Amino acid sequence: MSQIRTAINRIQDEIKSAQERSPYGAKDVLLLAVTKNVDAERMKEAMTAGISAFGENRVQEIEKKYDQIPTEASWHLIGHLQKNKVKYIINKVALIHSLDSTALAEEINKRAQQVNLVMPVLVQVNVADEETKFGVTPDEAIPLIQGIRALPHLKISGLMTIAPLVDEAEKVRPVFRQLRELRDQIQEMNLPGVSMDYLSMGMTNDYQIAVEEGANIVRIGSGIFGARLPN
Ligand SMILES: *Cc1c(COP(=O)(O)O)cnc(C)c1O
User: Fold this and answer.
1) Any idea where the domains of the chain sit in the sequence?
2) pLDDT, tens only, 44-79
3) How far are the Cα atoms of 46, 79, 93 from residue 42, in angstroms, in the given order?
4) Beta-carbon contacts of residue 210 (< 8 Å; ≥ 6 apart)
5) Digit-coded pLDDT (tens) for 157-175
6) Please, are residues 156 and 145 in contact by the beta-carbon 8 Å criterion?
7) Other Cβ atoms closer than 10 A to 18
8) What's the CA-to-centroid distance between 220 and ligand 1, angstroms?
9) Closest CA to 99 of 147, 168, 62
């Protein structure tokens, strides 16, 4: 069996165990294969091993590989998105994980309208409040959502976070828990135009804990494809 397939099978098993051992485990968890610096051949190999969705953090890389990948795959934009790049990916991606400003929401809404679609987005929350990361603070999330939820070509579909890098994965549990609690709080507000379908959290080093805390999208790169070369 290929290394990619072996890794995917193992991660799927770990996700399943984490779902089962926790009261917060989601019913379905999407394993999003993060394919930055991964070529189309290896992406197709991942598809034969059951992957159906790819996460990229750069617009340019989606554009470069898009036509080489079978159309049944879906693409997710997981990295910071500049307003002037929205037009390049608006009809290519199924979900944008990194919404973090009103201005970006307005641009996505405008471009989605031009191609006649409604774009699902997740609000990126910087739970740990690290200065180097994008995303809104937990306090800013609800006001942001309130301000943009009426945009007709945008569908607010959940929350995303990137946990800080720590030596022991268990240390990030409070970050994941806080995002889940924020999700619950927003859900209880029953805001028109807002659904909290997705909780995108957990990467190679911490996905089991994220699933225990209720993640239903985990974003895994190196755990599937091996260590990335530094950019
Ligand atoms: C690179 C990346 C991942 C995957 O990281 P790994 O540690 O390789 O699993 C997940 N989410 C985002 C936003 C990323 O940029």
Assistant:
1) 3-225
2) 999 999 999 999 999 999 999 999 999 999 999 999
3) 6, 21, 20
4) 163, 176, 201, 202, 218
5) 999 999 998 899 899 999 9
6) yes
7) 23
8) 6
9) 147
Q: Are 78 and 56 in contact (CB under 8 A)?
A: yes
Ligand 1 near 57 CB (within 6 A): yes
Q: Is the CB of 223 under 6 A from ligand 1?
A: yes
Tell me if 220 CB under 6 Å of ligand 1: yes
Only one residue has tokens 């720590």, namely: 166
The yes/no answer on whether domain 3-225 falls in CATH 3.20.20.10 is: yes
- Ligand 1: centre distance to CA 150 (Å): 31
Q: Encoding tokens for residue 106?
A: 């307005």
Ligand 1 test: best mutation among 10, 36, 57, most atoms within 8 Å of CB?
57
Structure tokens at 137: 């603070």
Q: Are 147 and 109 in contact (CB under 8 A)?
A: no
Q: Tell me the residue type at 68.
A: Q
